[in-house]
Amino acid sequence: MNINSWNKECRTGRGRKHNQKGGIKHPSGNQGVTINDVVLGVTQAGLSRYLNRRYGEDDKDVPAKQRKSNIPKSIRLRTAILVNLRPTAGIQDLADMMAKGSKSRWGNLIGYILLPFSIALQDDPLDYIRQAKATIDRKKLSLESICTFLSAELVLRIFGVKVAAAITHRILSNTTMAISSLIGPLEEISFYGHPMAYLAPTVYGHPHALTVHFQHYAEKMTIALAVDPNVIPDAHQLCDDLQESLKLIKDAVVKEGLIIKDVV
Questions:
Q1: Helix 35-55, helix 235-256: angle, nearest 10
Q2: Cα angle at 204 between 188 and 170, to 5 degrees?
Q3: What is the DSSP-derived secondary structure letter of residue 71?
Q4: Where is average pLDDT lowest: 21-25, 105-109, 174-178, 260-264?
Q5: Which helix (H) or strand (E) holds 10?
Q6: Is 217:210 a contact under the CB 8 Å cutoff?
Q7: Which DSSP symbol is given to 186?
Q8: What is the enclosing helix (H) or strand (E) of 225?
Q9: Contacting residues for 24 by C-beta, under 8 A, at least 6 apart
Q10: Rounded CA gap, 140 and 52, in Å?
Q11: How far does Cα 161 stand from its chain's mean position?
């Protein structure tokens, strides 16, 4: 899906509806589930709810129709996920990054993976997390993110920035959407004495109709969407579906009695 870069809107999941207190905690640490698994599972669940509603809009009996799947079996989605390749995760001090021999080098160290996106309604909300974990685990073993970073760096050094940008744009044009999950400051910060209420990142210029950002800041998690209004005219409804999917998954964790840990 090739989307014009200038036809974009930003929808931020902030405030009561889309700002989660306590961030995202992953269920059942003994199963090895990470926050990225949960983020991908929540996105799959929320987008499945949204598409199920959109495909069932022609039916007047919406409540009854919502209980069964309206999603075409032939639907195929693929997402691009950015991966931080730094050996030390999180925010580092500028002095440490500039120091000679530092492991946290200055500059971007970002690769990406192309992931098949599962769109379906599940009876058990935790099935979204299980599917996401199985897919992500296979991608981790493939070293795809490292290969994409090294390939892009090689093309950039040999052919220059224009060729590297053209190749990257061509690759992203063959995917449906993008997802990012960023860890922000663990404590609330202020700017010239004004406390920062939330962080909401976004991107511009890429050929995607939908980009989903999960931004962690202090004890909150903000969902921010960059959408093409011609493709997704009701972006706030998609935010609501992501919010509801996260709530259902958290309720399922409590119901199953799984352990919740603050592990990133």
A1: 130
A2: 130
A3: S
A4: 260-264
A5: strand 9-13
A6: no
A7: S
A8: strand 220-227
A9: 35, 38, 39, 42, 214, 216, 221, 246
A10: 30
A11: 26
What residues have CB less than 8 Å from 39, skipping those under 6 apart? Answer: 24, 179, 181, 214
Residue 251: how many CA atoms within 13 Å on its side-chain side?
8
Residue 90 banded pLDDT, cuts 50, 70, 90: low
Q: Which of 80, 111, 39 lies closest to 178 in space, CA to CA?
A: 80
pLDDT per position as a tens digit, 142-158: 889 899 999 999 999 99
Of residues 110, 245, 226, the one with CA closest to residue 168: 110
Number of separate helices (H) and strands (E) present in the chain: 8, 11
Using CA atoms in the order 122, 261, 215, 96, what is the torsion angle rounded to 10 degrees?
A: -140
Measured in whole angstroms, how far is the alpha carbon of residue 62 from the centre of its chain?
29
Residues 176-191 have pLDDT tens digits of: 999 988 888 888 888 8
- State both tokens at 86: 């730094």
Which residues, other chains included, contact 256 with Cβ-Cβ below 8 Å and sequence gap of 6+? 126
Q: According to DSSP H, which parts of 56-175 are helical?
A: 62-66, 94-98, 126-142, 144-159, 161-172
Distance in angstroms (rounded) separating the CA atoms of residues 40 and 50: 15
CA–CA gap between residue 134 and residue 34 (Å, rounded): 12
Nearest of 50, 31, 52, 33 to residue 41 by alpha carbon: 33
Determine contact, residues 135/116, Cβ cutoff 8 Å.
yes
Ramachandran angles phi, psi of 252, nearest 5° = -65, -35
